[in-house]
Hints:
Blueprint: H1 2-6, H2 10-31, H3 36-46, H4 59-68, H5 74-77, H6 79-99, H7 104-116, H8 118-122, H9 129-149, H10 152-166, H11 173-183, H12 189-212, H13 217-223, H14 234-248, H15 250-259, H16 261-264, H17 266-283
Amino acid sequence: MQSLAMLHHPKRLFITLLAITTLLKLWLAAAIPFTSDEAYFYQWGAHPDWGGFYDHPPMAGWWLWALQQFSSHPLVLRLPAVLLWIAVTFGMMDLMRRMQPLEERRRWLLGSVFLALPFTWALNLITTDTPLILFLFFSGYAFLRAEREDDLRWHAAAGMLLGLALLSKYFAGLLAITYAFYLLPRRGGLKRLLVVALCALPFMLLNLAWNSTHCWNNILFNLMNRNQGARVSPAHIVTYLLMMVYLVTPWTAVALWRAGGWRQYGRLVTLFAVPFVLFLLLSLA
């Protein structure tokens, strides 16, 4: 009954869930033993390189090097993963505040629902995905602010954050394609896209410079080595499509369609849909 009553006080519910899930995340981060992948990434931080490592760009190594200057305790090294989804939650809530300023109650409920999702409090390990997700999300956040406010400074921020994401993992390239897909058909879009690209370019060039002096290790591993033996499989395609349905959820898709959300929030739909369509096309290659 108390939990139902808290639905009438969504801000209180959000603060309660934030406190509970944060404490749970901190406990899991401190209690779970190191995995083999984490030990591997730990060595990146212990022996940082200027532009990359064998299988990925350098961001995770730089991140772990900075944390190791304070402590090598698992809780400290996993702290970015603990804070990641909290930062994303507040970012989503801020976007909703700007897009739907009258929906304060729903904004707090959105944050509460997201914090309650198991993956936002259960995944507290050291991975290359942590900086990738952080920089990708806030690049998208800056891009939406740029388009909404018609401010090239936010386009520049989106580009810099995209560059940092590219230094985290090459999946960030899908967001770069998404920006081009969205901007090029629009009046003034080329100028905005150039601002985004020029601000992301230095980060990409850094990794390319490292690869050019290290036998193109990152490129070969991600485009060739890890995909050797891969075959087109109808079962994989069906599985992928079912995963997308699960990710969006059928009721969310229906609600957006009935409310005209596909047209009203075309920018959000583009940022979400284009990368997953590209993933589908890549699965056919």
